[in-house]
Structures
1.
Amino acid sequence: MRGRVQRITWWVILLAAGCGLFAVRSLAQEACLQCHETEGLSITLPSGESIPVTVKGKDLAASVHRDLSCTTCHPGQEKYPHPPLAAKTAREFRVASARICQSCHSDAASDYSQSVHGRGLKLGLADVPTCQSCHTAHTVKPAKDPAFRNNIPLVCGNCHGDPQLASKYGMKEVYQTYATEFHGVTTFFYRVTKPQEVSPAAVCYDCHGIHDVKAVDAPDSPVNKQNLLSTCRKCHPQAGALFASAWLEHERPALGKATLVYLVSLFYTILIPSVVVFLGVHTVLDLWRWLMDRLEERRR
Ligand code: HEC
Ligand code: HEC
Ligand code: HEC
Ligand code: HEC
Ligand code: HEC
Ligand code: HEC
Ligand code: HEC
């Protein structure tokens, strides 16, 4: 009998402790949100840049991190005024904030640190992506979420379609060429018409890797000449040796680069509008003749 009472007492204590913890967590969350849901709240950094600090509780609640409390990711922010910020610029703030993600996701973090982007970060390049650039901070979606996959070309394209960034780093603007080839067009249709289904066509990371994106000429890059065919074969298992080499990659056809493709498309660019104009003129003349004939008949 005594053992049973003791057991019940333990259960009650455990339950109370559980509820207590939950209450403390949601209390803290409430306290943060009481200020942070205010619209228009922002912080101005010494660089003069301003960062909005409005955070929506429901965004976090809809993310993969719904079970984390604010202070798990932001320890030391419990009191207000908050401790002074070390970051002088928005970039410094983002780079420091990415360490929050790395503390829990060490696999992704170590792949990233070996990538062309992670190495760029170590070198202090101002434009390489950090974790939040691709995942956001408070609205992180599951990796297998179809909408996340179908949207990836735009996420990468934010930078890899920007002409200024391209010329700064001597890279091609690849988003524009991707968006007009079969994989890009198919993925675009999925994004717009079937956002809850995964595009089967290749998106950027199917060819380049996810966190371990390499410079395209690196020996271990999945898109260098030696590895490209096996990368295509993940989805085109029948592909023969010429399959990959016949493909234009991110190249725009021009004189001297895929000259035949360029000339054929130039031919059609001229032919199709000419035919349309020709047909238009033909129809107008035909109508004119018809009208004139009718008027002639009436006059007679
Ligand atoms: C009394 C209102 C108030 C409360 C409560 C509050 N904050 Fe803030 N917080 C602010 C304001 C205002 C800023 C803008 C910068 C500043 O004035 O310090 C800010 C800035 C921040 C920043 C960005 C700058 C930095 O210091 O890193 C984070 C992150 C942050 N708060 C997290 C939290 C968390 C987490 C909680 C709850 C544990 C919380 N805040 C509670 C008002 C508040
Ligand atoms: C999974 C970790 C995580 C959780 C949970 C989290 N944050 Fe954040 N938070 C971040 C990261 C990372 C950044 C940096 C974002 C960036 O680069 O702009 C950030 C930035 C902020 C900022 C600065 C403004 C901004 O958006 O950049 C505020 C304010 C803030 N968080 C408040 C909160 C509050 C309040 C909660 C709880 C409702 C919360 N955070 C929960 C990771 C988290
Ligand atoms: C305190 C630890 C912690 C921090 C900090 C944290 N995460 Fe997470 N993250 C988790 C946990 C736990 C899950 C698993 C949730 C689940 O399975 O539903 C998760 C899930 C994810 C997923 C989905 C994984 C999948 O397989 O679908 C992504 C993406 C992710 N986190 C990215 C981030 C990013 C980006 C940051 C920084 C803004 C971050 N995480 C910060 C603990 C953390
Ligand atoms: C250049 C864009 C990009 C950057 C930067 C990035 N990720 Fe990801 N991440 C992705 C994509 C795309 C996926 C989904 C891939 C898939 O289908 O599994 C993913 C998947 C994940 C996952 C779930 C699958 C896994 O690998 O465990 C986690 C966790 C994650 N990322 C965390 C991070 C963290 C932490 C960082 C920063 C160190 C980061 N990511 C930086 C694009 C990025
Ligand atoms: C079907 C495979 C495939 C897909 C999908 C793909 N790429 Fe590529 N990518 C390649 C190959 C092969 C190269 C190397 C040849 C070249 O530069 O055209 C390359 C080169 C690059 C380069 C280097 C360009 C340069 O200046 O040398 C970048 C950056 C890049 N891709 C980013 C992207 C982005 C961003 C996406 C999505 C919008 C994407 N790629 C989609 C295969 C692919
Ligand atoms: C925030 C901007 C940004 C985002 C987002 C981004 N990148 Fe990059 N990426 C860069 C910059 C900047 C470099 C140049 C780094 C360097 O030269 O060291 C780069 C380099 C590369 C390279 C190497 C190019 C070469 O010359 O060999 C590839 C491949 C690449 N990125 C692919 C991707 C893919 C795939 C994604 C999306 C999953 C992506 N990037 C998202 C900024 C970005
Ligand atoms: C993630 C899977 C995937 C990868 C990786 C992939 N493709 Fe595709 N590819 C597809 C799908 C699905 C289609 C058909 C839908 C469409 O037309 O977009 C397709 C269509 C094509 C087509 C149009 C002709 C046809 O067979 O329908 C060519 C050419 C092509 N891919 C070349 C390549 C090359 C070259 C590579 C490697 C550099 C590659 N693909 C990598 C999935 C992939």
2.
Amino acid sequence: MKSELTSPADSATFQVLLYYRYVRIDNPEAYMTEHRILCRELGLRGRIIIGEEGINGTVSGTNEATNAYIATMHADPRFAEMEFKIDASDDHVFPKMSIKVRDEIVRLGLDATTDIDPNRLTGKRLSPAQFYQKMQEEEVVIIDGRNDYEAELGKFKNAICPTVENFREFPDWLRENAEKLKGKKILTYCTGGIRCEKLSGLIKGEGFDEVYQLDGGIVKYGKDPEVQGRDFEGLCYVFDERVGVEVNRTETRKVISHCRYCGVEEPHYGNCKWPDCNEQIFVCPDCRAEHGLFCSSACKDGFAKREAEG
Ligand SMILES: [Zn+2]
Ligand SMILES: [Zn+2]
């Protein structure tokens, strides 16, 4: 286990793990069955995707259970090199365990003709310190490889967030922005690094020479003792009950999300209480008291009406 990736928290008795590995898994269905037994025995909760191309997971469990899981995975030659990002936690951050088999271990919308094998074609991996250094250079374009609602909560300073629905649209986006990107050093980043494995490969495949990816993603960048999340603005969106986690522990830390009612800085997402909507929104405590946690009066009225009908 790489201790520099662990967030210190003295009293925490749980851990949240984030990990992936692009490696050939011959029989994903059989491996899923085997993996389910392991996770059940350890009492883990979370989300794991298994495919012929590898594994992608995020789980929570007690310190003992998660450490046992890491040891078991590292004993398998296929996953011996797999890096685990570890956060301390007071409890589980998932309601249940879900293990599925899919063609893509992270949904990028690529198919047999557009897919990238990151073991063959990918951008140059930069450590957090190298990534920070590279961001300071001239002629650099920083591309956020995540969805727009993730970038809304937090992103790297000066990063651009391509408005693409899925990765298949990236080549078009690159061509449309060719003027802006020509001759530039292109840096990509995502949450834990998995999406950039293919994104940076895809950009290289479009003929760009200098393409770099943030190894281990934002999560590793925030845990790095040297850069300490420097120049990441806002929180990092995560796909569990925490929604957002702190990244930047330097004086450059700031909040970039704002209350949709009054505009004050508000770092925490909430879900609109109207179940038919459930949209993730920023509402400050004062406005929550006044308007409730609703994205609009339509949602508020809908909720009130259904309450009245019992
Ligand atoms: Zn407000
Ligand atoms: Zn709503």
